[in-house]
Amino acid sequence: MEKGALKSDWLPAFNAVPRHLFVPDVIWPGRAGMNRQDDRVIRSEAPDTWWEAVYQDAPITTQWDDGTFTGPGKGKIPSSSNSMPTMVFSMLDALSVEGGERVLEIGTGTGWNAALMSHRLGAENVFTVEVDGASAREARKRLNDAGFDPVSVIGDGAEGYAEGAPYDRVVATASIGSLPRQWIEQTKPGGIIVAPWGPTYGGEAVVRLTVSGDGSASGWFVGSSAFMRLRAQRVQRTHVREYLGGKKWPADGTRSVTAISPDAVGDWPVMFAIGVQVPSAFPWAETYDDGSYTLWLRDTAVTSWATADFEKDREEFEVYQSGPRRLWDEVETAYLWWEKQGRPGFDRFGLTVDADGERVWLDSPDNPVPVRAAA
Predict the structure, then answer these.
(1) What angle do CA 135, 136, 142 make, to 5 degrees?
(2) Which residues participate in catalysis according to the annotation?
(3) What is the Rg, in whole angstroms, of the alpha carbon atoms belonging to the chain?
(4) d(CA 286, CA 284)
């Protein structure tokens, strides 16, 4: 691939396992680098559009709302996909396999990733777990039709698959905000875990962890990502009306102004840096026709909220905050820390998971990122 994600050692698998064998007939094409989907495409009705989507370097949504929505149009929450090829092969490259390694995949999806690994490593060395029964059965059929028979299991990926352990590698195709201990316990010392990791707030990157003999795992983030959340770690997001207690905004919010634009805190890397420091909180933008918007901040405990109004060409922005957590103040402090560190990208961050918990660090495991509020 032109972007360099496909290295020569994975080229035979790429050529032998074409993507179209693992894309269902009904899809919602995505766009590279964006969490947006086009409307439903049915292969029999629009074959040219279907083929074009399959061979673009972009993700393809294959399920909405855990299968309860089938279209037309789009559902509320995408719940399964066929990942963009550059992401697939960059994560496979991060596994650093040489051949014969025993690999556990969390999230079978459409089966393409499992097929690629089966071709490279031998299907007897590939174990794949999928929580959605219908998706798992369809993927298993595609794998078998393509000539592969890895161990395919319907189950909760957060628990791994102890029956096949220990593994040399673990790769997750669903994002997490906390690394399940079972993944470490089921990986051999010296083994590698590759997974998309992101805080509740937003921002996400693929982390590559090496497991140690003492039961810890540590390593660097290796690239931006945007995966669907592992079902066991989804966060329920309560509507803003519940935070206002039946009152009209700004309810009991306290007014202030800030020189930090809501636009400054919206890019993926800075959202990651903010989210690590501001746990159990998340943003939402309420947009208006003139291009202005209100950035809402809410905590998962439903105790605190804040708003920051963005209007173009302004130097000060109106803020309202309510509750025991001053969420805009937390976000602003986290943003200023990120600026002071030189606006680091994902490649300067790492993650350590051990008996003391989980810590994101900057530049060195000895330099943990500060946490601004209790989770």
Answers:
(1) 90
(2) 83
(3) 22
(4) 7
